[in-house]
Each structure stands twice: as structure tokens, then as C-alpha cells.
Amino acid sequence: MSIQSWEEFRERSLWEYELKILPADLRLGHFVRQLSIPWEQTDFPLQGMVVDTFEKKRWLQAHCDWVVIDLDRSPNPYRPTIFARHGGDAPTNHAVDLLRRAGIDRNSLSAAVNTYHQLDLQAESLIHALSNDASIDFQSARTVVGEMAESLDENLAALVWLSRIKQRDRYTAQHCINVAILSMGLAASLGWGKREMEMAGLAGLLHDLGKMRIDMNILNKKGRLTPEEFEQVKRHSEFGYEMLKTESAVPGEVAQAVLSHHERPDGSGYPQALTGDQILPLARVISIIDAYDAITSHRVYDPARSHHQALGILWKNRDTQFDRKYVECLTSLMGWVTPGTLVRLSNESLAVVMESPSVRGFLPLVRIVEHDDEGPRLGAELDLAGQRAAGVSNPLRISEVLPDSHDGIDMRELTAQLTLHL
User: Fold this and answer.
1) Is the peptide bond before 403 cis (omega within 30 degrees of 0)?
2) Cα(334)–Cα(156) distance, integer angstroms
3) Are the C-beta atoms of residues 227 and 218 closer than 8 Å to each other?
4) What's the CA gap between 91 and 287, in Å, rounded?
5) C-alpha dihedral over 302, 308, 309, 315, to 10 degrees?
6) Which of 334, 366, 393 is the last residue of a domain?
7) Domains contained in the chain, number
8) Which of 160, 148, 133 is nearest to 338 (CA)?
9) Is the dihedral of CA 174, 180, 183, 185 positive or negative?
10) Is residue 1 in some structural domain?
């Protein structure tokens, strides 16, 4: 998606500007569009209003538990700390802030590479066992996911980087790995405890294994599926549930999440057409991450789209296909760009994002991607925000957010380069 102008990008990216904050963090000049109490209980206009007096600010602080501000409509662009715990009862500096602030260093990346490798072994082992009707070791999978939950705070940014590795011939295994990683990140940003994070990771790793019971000719079909073929594919969630429901190493809520990860809040999902709160929170998490990773991956019937486009699709389908609160939390967690996102700069150079704190806005720290006879390699580091602050004439900016693996760029190779040279 090319960006014709900075204003056009702002118009398309409203989710980056809508923040749920504590009233104590309000500043004069913030535009408030939502309150923890009904607007009818106030004297303010229903369409929202600018906090332009201390009286308005004090009233909101006295009567509201939280407010939602829209920075795109705020004369004051100051970005406060968001909070995303379910219930909205406390601020958090947990995974949301960690990912947005964290950079990539050798230790975190090396640890994340080891974790990713262990997840990869588990995913391949599960797929192989199911494909050959062999015994399945679910306990080992749970152990690996539990270890990942313990170190998520330190390694989340690096693990998100690794989730950008996309190989067309290994879609099923990598999709399960990526859904495990990102589901744990979303669970953490929702304020869930370590056990719930572990359950999210395990459900993510196992959510699509029922597809091993589907005819591979249907799964690999390049054209549109017939109604009969689609009905077969839809059965994968039930097949997965049947495999898991009696396994002692797989908690019941994980098996239920596998069954329900294609249910939708509006009741149009499958296999039970559940609605709203009938869908377990864990299943709602997996549903969102499953869609996000699928959208950003190359599939036989659909080319990969960018991180930015994927968030836009999720945002557009809040309340219908996906849980509104969880989508908003994911967009706050991931931001406009995450570590590992490929971008095109305004001088046509390609770059990969290294870190993107919220205070930088749309001006992250990047590394230029150069090409030589041996393929893509990481070049110089470039601080886009620093260029602006230093008053550089014609400072570079991001003009396009690109799909993973664009232009043949292999994140495995870039990861190896980082591990060696950071």
C-alpha cells in the first residue's frame, strides 16, 4: 500500500491514534471520544470534545475511570501511556509497552532463536505424528511453551521479529509457531497471568493440527474451493478438538479454544455459531492472531499482505468477525510497525525496523537493507526521528509498509547477520 501523503496515511491509520488512558494522564488539547460512563450523564456533546479547559479536565478525572482519546483530532499530540488490562482497572507497563520500547540485542535474539527452534521442532513433530498416525507427545509441547511464557518479557520483541520468517513450503508449521508467539504476546498485553499466557501459546501451537485430517489436495488447491470442499476444511477445528479433548497434557480450555477459534462475535462462525461472550476469551485471542498471521503470509490462494494492512482488516471487522477489545489491544501491542517489519523509505531504499517506541510516532529506528552478490544484507542504522530532531533537510520517512519476504528478503538470513554482528 503506497502512501501518497502524510495526511493520507494519518487518515488511513486511525487505530494508531485512539488510546484508552487514565483520566489523570489527560492533557489540555486532547480530543476525548469515549468515556467509562454514558455520555448522557454528562453535559458534553455526544460526538466527543476537546479538553480545552481545566474545568473539563477536572470533571473527567473526578467522574471517569478511563477515557479514550483520538490523537488524530487532538490539537495536543502528546501521547500518554495506554492501559490495556481487561476491565481497564489499572495501568500497565507490561507487554504493550515492552514491545513498543524494546530493541533487539544479541542476547535477546539468541535466546529467542533457541526458543523458536524448540517450537519449530515441536510443530514438526506434531505434524509428522499426525500425518503418520503415530503417538503424539503433547507434554513436550506444553513444556516448551511454558518455558517461553517464563521469558516472554525479555524476549518478546525478538520473538516478534522471528515471527516475520515466512517460507511458502513450511506454512503450516510456521503458522502454528507464529500464532503461539503472538497469542502469548496478546495474552500478556491483556494482563493475563503466566498460566493463561501458557494456555494461549499452547492453543496457538495446536489450533490448526486438525487440518492434518483434511485432504491435502483441498488444502493446497490454488483456486476457489467448492462449497463441499469448504465444508470439509471447516471440519478441521472439530477434528483438532476430538484429538485433544482426552489428552491429559492438554487442558480443557485449550481443546475448547481449538474447537472455537473460527467462531465470530456476530454468530457467523463455525462449528457452533456461537456469539459474543459465548466464545471463550482464549478462543477469541487465537481467532485474531490466526487471522493476522494468515493475512501476512503467502498462501496458495492469497498473496501476503503487510502488517499494516492486516491490522486494518482486523480493525474494520471488530464486533463482527473479531472481539473489539482484543483487536484494539493487539493494535496497541503491535503498533504501526514492529521489530522485523519491512518498509520502503521515501528515497526508495528498503529497510527493516529495529525498534519503534510510541514516542517516535511514525519514525522508528531502522537498518537499511542492501543487496550484493550474496543477496540482501543489513546496512547502516538510521534513526528517522533523530533526523527530524537534528533538522536534516528532507529527512527520510516511511512511504510504504511491505509484506514479509518482499523482494526476496529472507528474515532467516537477516537474523543470522544480527546474531553475528549485534
Assistant:
1) no
2) 11
3) no
4) 26
5) 130
6) 334
7) 3
8) 160
9) negative
10) no
